[in-house]
Amino acid sequence: MKVHVGPVALPELEAAVVAGGAELSSAADASALVWYGGPPEQFAELDHPGLEWVQLPSAGIEPWAASGALRDGVTFTSAAGTYAQTVAEHALGLMLVGARQVHLMARASRWAKPDGMRGVHGSTVGILGAGGIGRALIALLRPFGVRVLAVNRSGKPVDGAVATWRADDVEGVRELLAESDFVVVAAPATAETAQLVDADALARMKPGAWLVNVARGSLVDTGALLAALDEGRLGGAALDVTDPEPLPDGHPLFQHPRAIVSPHAANPESLLVPALARRVEENVRRRLAGEPLLGVVDRAAGY
Amino acid sequence: MKVHVGPVALPELEAAVVAGGAELSSAADASALVWYGGPPEQFAELDHPGLEWVQLPSAGIEPWAASGALRDGVTFTSAAGTYAQTVAEHALGLMLVGARQVHLMARASRWAKPDGMRGVHGSTVGILGAGGIGRALIALLRPFGVRVLAVNRSGKPVDGAVATWRADDVEGVRELLAESDFVVVAAPATAETAQLVDADALARMKPGAWLVNVARGSLVDTGALLAALDEGRLGGAALDVTDPEPLPDGHPLFQHPRAIVSPHAANPESLLVPALARRVEENVRRRLAGEPLLGVVDRAAGY
């Protein structure tokens, strides 16, 4: 099998192709393409009738679906699941930062214990959109003896959660919001999840609870969140993603005493590339062995 | 058994005494004293010939040993082990903050990803002084697939560590320093552990590694650490304890780009009292049942 890595020929990914057992080639000769470093609009430049499989570098495929590049006759695989561990680790870090008020410690220039420090141990953690990241987070939380509540699209019970509700079960979602000390947003960005956490949802959260968003900024109403943080009823918000994104310089969320902004850094480049390389190697190996590929894109579902 | 709680009669601890099966009394009538809220110098005010047992509120007992209050004829018990879960949770939080550079994010007023972000997953974690806190930290780290290296006084293998060296095994300690992505200091403060992490130890640490101190400030040479941080070879330092403590206002460690100072907050009051109350209840129950007390102080060892 001949594989091209492009439009940017990242050496780590080329090495993964070779480690998986395939041969590197020009785009024109390749039956498989490992996409890296360009927008989907550039796909036409590398596409050709002999192309059978394209490995995409991201977990979400919204821009690819929107661009129309996901053409028939080619199998597309996303990197879904590849980064779940990395993002879950970041989410746990943000939960601990909120619980222990580390953002205030980081900003201080004098020795003073912040008020309101608490523990993650023994708390209740609600996960809105418990997919791959949610499962990875539940695994990390196991030694903390937490009670996990989950919401997902299907309502199919999530391992490690004491309750799982369907996303359209209004009462279930309200129960999660009311009982959780930490509400972690990890759902995909779709029309249904836009502004999922709005003023009403924020008002239903437990006093002192922390909101952690590692999904997409569009899932949280920024204005409503800022009002809720100013009011002081919530513990705070830890946001890896925001709306708008990037936040403008000096936006009040940056230095808000009840907020910590992580600039879409849950899956940093330094960790992304090795994780993607592992996925590329595994999928190349699978392709050569005739085994099912990981992360095959379902065009109809949009992920 | 008559027990006095003082010099501050904290209701939560008085309730624990009663829950353990003993009777509350004045200091003069008590055969046991649960110490809370005063320095060891005040001990003489509550001491009397009928006193048999004193439960101290802290895990470390240096000020008690230094004050000479640990007199013969009385059994002293510390709170060692009581706070291990809480402190380990804080230590993991500080590791994640360092790995993901959350201290820099917390200080920022604009959207910019810090350099040098990394993961805890798959890293090597060295624990200097792997006692109760170390064991609790290893339990929290289990889902991260880390490699744990440990040093303790006895060299007795620590569960979950791939290697354990005796504290006086110079080569072993050097191996831990050289291989660890995170060096967590969790040893008691004794004459032997003073300035355990000095300029030489810091120079032996892996480039980019983070130092996390949740033990006592005296275990790390502050001047040498600051020099090492300025030099930029280390990833950084997350310090819950410092020397001197408190750090003076505006000390360069507070806003150092490679440091986060947590003001001796790993075991915040809000979590300390419930944990201490559980220990008091358990030790009162044990005393009444003639069972061995938890945390009996070894005057010779100094903890």
UniProtKB/TrEMBL annotation, chains A, B:
Cross-referenced PROSITE patterns: D_2_HYDROXYACID_DH_3 (PS00671)
Keyword vocabulary terms for this entry: NAD, Oxidoreductase
Domain D-isomer specific 2-hydroxyacid dehydrogenase NAD-binding: 95-266
Source superkingdom: Bacteria
Name of the featured protein: D-3-phosphoglycerate dehydrogenase
EC number(s) reported in the record: 1.1.1.95
Pfam families documented for this protein: 2-Hacid_dh_C
Entry GO MF terms: NAD binding; phosphoglycerate dehydrogenase activity
